[in-house]
Amino acid sequence: MSGRTSFSGALPSSLSTAVDAARDRLDRGRVAILLLGLVAAVVSVLVATRVFPYHSLNHDEGVYLQQAEMLLSGRLFLRPPVDGPFHPWFFVVSEQGLYSKYQPVPAAVFALGRVLGGYPLALAGISAGVVAGTAALARELFDWRVGAVAGVLVLASPLFLIHAGVYLPYAATAAFELCFAVAYLRGERTGSRRMAAVAGGAIATAFFARPYTAVLFATPFILHALVTLLRSGAWRTPFADVTAEQRALFGRRLATAGLGIVGVLAALAYNLALTGEPLVFPYQAFAPEDGIGFGHREILGHEENYTLELGIESNRRVLTQLFTDWVAMGVVGVALAAAGVVAAAASAIRGRLRDAGDRASTALVGRRAVVAGTFVSIAAGNVAFWGNFNILGALGVEDDGLIHSLGPYYHYDMLVPTAVFGAVAAVWAADWLGSTAAPRLPERATAERVAAAAIVVAAGVAAPVAAGAAERPLEHNAEISGELAAAYEPFEDEGGLSMGNAAIGGNQTEEKTLTFLPPVYGPWLNHPFQAVRNDPDFDGPSLYAIGDYDELDVAAANPDHELRRYVIRGAWNPVDGEDVTAELRPVERVSGESVRLDAAVGVPETAESVSIRAGGDGGETYAAGNASGGSLELTLTVDEATATLAGEGIREPGTFDVEDRDELHVTVFVSTGPSTGFSYQLVFPVDTGGEEVRALSATRERCPVPDRCVPAGLGPSPPGQFANTTVEAVPGE
């Protein structure tokens, strides 16, 4: 006993004090918040790696990740070795180099995840922040039970689940906004200037990330700050003697506004560094008419007269989808949120009647009204943004547009008040049931225990509803990823993709490669091929360039890289349920006094005639070919000024002029009837302007109809249809 008595001296006492302090801080509310945040982080990593291993249909992900890699390299601009073929999607051309049209804060958050071990860690932290922040906000306004239920409702929302796994800015911005909201409201409750300063820093960061989004979320808080400042008389602080309470309020407003202005100044400074004008944001430099407001709107040839009527109709459709498909339990969850708003309003009215003149009660009602006000500010403000029209796709086509796969992401912030007030209704109903049922039950069945049991039972009933709502978008995006897997299979086979959304795009061998990618959507990298990206310094083991565009210059700028072309068969439409077939084909460099393309193309027995056209920018020639024999062999020989088409099966060979830099096309049309036939397309770039003629291997396609071609030799072909080519230097005489 004496030993135990001596052991309970100073050290156990200090430990006991520490344990008591930890217990005081880690009450049930904080434990719930921590556990919910942990669950959200785990869910995020699973969604990112299992549902979106190749990223989503929104190609902005590649923009943000490219920008993150630039920040990790300490640069704001890309300076590729050749202008044009290395241009990433949504990057702006300037004298200083290429820069992203997006603000750098989301990319910086993703970059932090990479530093800590991998990009998915950033998504995990963001998701934990959104769920824990919502729970903390609800706890601040109501109690820990409302906070816990609110966190669960966000966690169960399909919009949250989808964006927990994608590298887009909406969840990251919401996390900063939630930090702002919790800190601001806690500062109001406790009178803490430090919390007010945290609020200012958080909303400054959110503004730097997405200015308009942050303004819409913060508008009710700004109104609250101004009204309380004016009504209390605290605004007189710099000019007159005021009470300590007024001085403290003024100090909190000054801390929040002062640090909030830092975000504005940072954004303007960033604009100045990139666009040269503090009031011109990068997205405006990219597309001057892509912005907030009504009238003519345009980006990359897509234009619309965005009227108020169109804005209202677009947002009506977006909000309908949000509240039916993308919040927890769909319309059931929305009904809960509506009931929660009514319950909170009724409670406020009863409180004012009961506690007239109670300033603390009145202040709490005002803070709750601020959060409810975000319903209005976000919904109304988004009417002025034509992006909500764009994500719907064609308004007359069901399930069209990115909203079908990724939800109404411009309204992501509305998950917060929906979850908070949905939780209010759930807890209020449980409390009502507990107070009603407890007197009729055994003595141990207190109202609190009945309410807790009701919440647990309700959660069990609601879980299948929530799971059903989340199942469709998760399965839909998983199916899309399955189609993308087929497209990226050639890179996977050589170890060129790093799973888990880490730095993607390098190969696992010592060989340096340069891959020409097809311009599926125009002259852009990472659109659509987001999962293969260049290092910011363009010195990695794998490089990617746009094919059919200055290929010779790209090859010359990278003499140590093995060249290949990525070819794909099938329409690039990952939502159509049909996989594509892809292949990496080696590309040879040749140079000499002249170069020669040798080709053999299949001519089926049903062929009636064969015609050939060969040409480029300098001229062209025509010839007829032999329609028998099963194969037509031809050559195209290029010297310093001309190209000559010849071959054993070609009647009357022809010659045409060639420009110093040219892309030569050989089209072989095989007629199989009066109005039927198919063709072969052979294309190879040549440079005759130097001391030697330079060329690369030709692309070869088979065209069942003139405007629809597939890579020859990739996938099944009709009997007798093939195209084989080689290119080689021809030694001088």
Write up this protein.
- Helices cover 49% and strands 19% of the residues.
- Among the domains are: 96 residues, no CATH class; 141 residues.
- A hairpin with a 4-residue loop joins strand 11 and strand 12.
- It is elongated and about 105 Å long.
- Helix 6 crosses helix 19.
- It contains 21 helices and 22 strands.
- With 733 residues, it is α+β, with helices and mostly antiparallel strands.
- Strands 9, 11, 12, 15, 17, 18, 19, 20 and 21 form a nine-stranded antiparallel β-sheet that branches. It has a five-stranded antiparallel β-sheet with strand order 16-14-13-10-22, with no helix packed on it. The chain has a four-stranded mixed β-sheet with strand order 6-5-7-8, with helices on both faces.
- The longest helix is centred in the middle third of the chain and has 47 residues.
- The N terminus is likely disordered.
Biggest beta sheet attributes: 9 strands, antiparallel
Strand content: 15-25%
* Basic shape: elongated
Helix count, DSSP H or I runs of 4 or more residues: 21
Question: Helix/strand-derived class?
Answer: alpha+beta
Helix content: 40-55%
Comma- or semicolon-separated keywords:
21 helices, alpha+beta, 5-stranded antiparallel beta sheet, disordered N terminus, 49% helix, single chain, 733 residues, elongated
Quick recap of the structure?
By secondary structure, the chain is α+β, with helices and mostly antiparallel strands. It is built from 21 helices and 22 strands.
